[in-house]
Amino acid sequence: MSLSTAACSGHKPYTELENILAEALKNNDTEQTERWRKPKTTRRYLQGPLAERLLVMFREGKILYGDVHHLDDWSFRYRHVRSHAVWLVGPNDDPFDFKKAELNVTEDGLPAHSQTWRDDALEITLAACAPVVRKPSAFARLTVKNNGTAEVSRDFALFVRAAKEDKLVFGAPDIYKIYDPQLDTWLKLPCDDWLADNKMLRSNDRFVEVLSDTKTRWDAEKGALRFTLVIPPNSTATVDFAIGKGIRECASYDAAYAAMRDGWAKALAPLRLPQPSSRSNASMPCTSR
């Protein structure tokens, strides 16, 4: 009796190894019949080729601007580097549920990433991108769509912090099962190094800037730029902002988005995949997977 026959007929395998293989065969049959599940990820990378900065958008609404300086022997690890980040939260300073974030991708695969949360009649989408340059800023757009029949007023806040990277992304490791970002960890980090000038926040040469006409209020105690959106029924409100260091290289989110697409098009232009001949196509077996 073959091993596969023994596994299917309920016959007890003769050895422990056979028992393991029989279980593997059973699991393989189960996997073939189960629906394919989309892999989960905790973050999206925004920077382009040859970038000297690390720009990351996390599922809970956080965007990190990471310095990636290193010594000549590449021994300067990221956890020793001081970076900064901005964290978009909702009413009562409640972070968005990373488990309910719907991650979106563009049809052409370019890194203009966005994610959506649904809250009653509201669709709350955070999109982010970066121009393809050596030291890019990250540009983000918050879009709130009201699908209901009544006007909705909703409070938001942009929390800002500058600290070592492992403090800014605490609770957000690569292993999804232990992903547990908490705003309390940020509230324990100092924020008195940030100064507000209208819609521009600065900590030395680091900045977070709101690019829209939205009225904002700086909460110095908690280190958050607060604003309220009033969205009529069947309408949409947007707020654009940027995070970077030094001088912002694009005037708006739309300009950064166009620069991102143009930069990636130029970077990918030299790549040409070989086109198979008609003869090789005819001899190539077809599979449905």
Provide a descriptive summary of the structure in words.
With 289 residues, this protein is of the alpha+beta class. It has a single domain (43-266), classed as Beta-galactosidase, Chain A, domain 5 (Distorted Sandwich). It is 19% helix and 34% strand. It has helices spanning 3-9, 16-33, 165-168, 183-187, 253-268, 278-283, and strands at 43-45, 53-58, 62-67, 82-89, 102-104, 113-119, 122-129, 138-146, 152-164, 195-197, 200-203, 206-210, 217-219, 224-231, 235-245. The strands form 2 sheets. Strands 5-6-7-8-15-12-11-10 form an 8-stranded antiparallel sheet. Strands 1-2-3-4-9-14-13 form a 7-stranded antiparallel sheet. Strand 5 and strand 6 (113-119) form a beta hairpin. Helix 1 (3-9) crosses helix 2. The model is unreliable at 1-14 and 280-289 (pLDDT under 50).
Calculate the mean pLDDT score and round it: 81
Structural class: alpha+beta
Which percent range fits the helix content? 10-25%
The largest sheet is:
8 strands, antiparallel
Q: Give the C-level CATH assignment.
A: Mainly Beta
Counted beta strands:
15
Q: How many domains, as an integer?
A: 1
Per the CATH scheme, the topology name is Beta-galactosidase, Chain A, domain 5
**Spatial shape:** globular
The count of helical stretches stands at: 6
Give the low-pLDDT segments.
1-14, 280-289
Cα-atom radius of gyration = 24 Å
The percent range for strand residues is 25-35%
Strand order of the largest sheet: 5-6-7-8-15-12-11-10
Condensed summary:
By secondary structure, this protein is an alpha+beta fold. It is 19% helix and 34% strand.
